[in-house]
Amino acid sequence: MQVRKKVLCVVGARPNFMKIAPIMRAMRSHATEIDAVLVHTGQHYDEAMSERFFQELQIPAPDVSLDVGSGTHAAQTAEIMKRFEPVLDLEKPDCVLVVGDVNSTLACALVAAKKGILLVHVEAGLRSGDRRMPEEINRLVTDRLSDRLYTSEATASINLAAEGIAPGAIVFVGNVMIDTLMHARSSAVPATQTLRSYNAPETLLEPPSQFAVLTLHRPSNVDDPVTLGRLVEVLTEVARELPIVFPVHPRTRSALERCGLQHFLTAPGVIALPPLGYQEILGLMLSATLVLTDSGGVQEETTALGIPCLTIRDNTERPITISEGTNTLVGSDPTAILAGVAAIVSGGGKSGRRPELWDGNAAGRIVEDLLQWLHQT
Ligand code: UD1
């Protein structure tokens, strides 16, 4: 009989939860072969940013909670490292599995690598080429330290090979985020129900209603008052023609208040909502005319759903959403944003196709490969 392998899985922030959910499910269906231990760093801690996703996505309650909370990048990363090290001493896993590119990913990767524990990275190899993005630093370092690297698109595997990662360590498995999307699609909350529950104007609820969904939280867009002010101005203009449904990230809400721009949240055509659950945002995206975003995951989700997406960034680490999907980069330039919206409203926007292996089975492929690899290593 083969020995059961202990895999310590790490989550910390909201985008991690959609990635870990299908992996935990696949590991549970191999429970005789894998002992999966879930560690939540507590980088995100609000009910709306964390707890509710465990329920909605049926993620088992964390076995270990580190409760680190917010801080500067250095303080948050250091605190996670300090609290994660004793967990490894106690659990003695066969490997540590990290997902995505948040500070929790980097912090736990560093600790595992320094303790000589095998490190596995899911969603490896994505590169924006922009080191001003904290996530880009997290990706570069995590991948450099990883022993097994699972990629979601072909360019990610190419990036890793170009950086000198051994080709045998890189496995193209597809996109776990899309596993979650396909699993949850049938239970998406209808957009009208969500809008009604947050008291949106009745006119928006009458078909054929047209609206945009906006998500905005990248430091490069919201931390600088000039950039944020310019975005608020152009988005106010968009909202006069096409209502904007805007679930507001806590970072963005405080940035708007700090910069004296909170009037945007009550501007004509702007429907500001608290951070939403997964099934709510999914339902809104499914009914949206278009999505405006600076999120990484939303670029992928809109591509998988075939919904036009305008990305408020100058670059993307997910180029397949542009080459094959429905995504267009518009940066923070008002003219490009207005032109992008107008093109979609009048012509329907880019039609794309679903990228290779974004088929709902990425986590299954990861677990099968992981087991085989752990037994060989
Ligand atoms: C983090 C990730 C980012 C991801 C995003 C999704 C990093 C470097 N960034 O950014 O890649 O796209 O999560 O949300 O890891 N806050 C709350 N409640 C919470 C969590 C945060 O109010 O539950 C507030 C705090 O004031 C905090 C701020 O939001 O200072 C930012 O949170 P933080 O985790 O530092 O980064 P995000 O901007 O959320």
Summed up:
With 377 residues, this protein is of the alpha/beta class. The protein has helices at residues 14-28, 47-56, 73-91, 103-114, 134-145, 154-162, 176-184, 191-197, 202-205, 219-222, 225-241, 250-258, 278-287, 296-305, 320-323, 334-347, 362-376, and strands at residues 5-11, 34-40, 64-65, 95-99, 118-122, 148-151, 170-172, 212-215, 244-247, 270-273, 290-293, 309-311, 327-329. Helix content is 48%, strand content 15%.
Lay out the secondary structure.
Elements lengths: L4 E7 L2 H15 L5 E7 L6 H10 L7 E2 L7 H19 L3 E5 L3 H12 L3 E5 L11 H12 L2 E4 L2 H9 L7 E3 L3 H9 L6 H7 L4 H4 L6 E4 L3 H4 L2 H17 L2 E4 L2 H9 L11 E4 L4 H10 L2 E4 L2 H10 L3 E3 L8 H4 L3 E3 L4 H14 L14 H15 L1
Parallel strand pairs: 1-2, 1-4, 2-3, 4-5, 5-6, 6-7, 8-9, 8-11, 9-10, 11-12, 12-13
The site of uridine-diphosphate-N-acetylglucosamine has 19 residues, from helix 1, helix 2, helix 5 and helix 12.
How does this model look, in words?
The protein has 377 residues and is an alpha/beta fold. It contains 17 helices and 13 strands. It has a seven-stranded parallel β-sheet, with helices on both faces. Helix 15 links the parallel strand 12 and strand 13. Helix 1 runs parallel beside helix 2. It is globular and about 60 Å long. It starts with a strand and ends with a helix. Uridine-diphosphate-N-acetylglucosamine (UD1) binds next to helix 1, helix 2, helix 5 and helix 12.
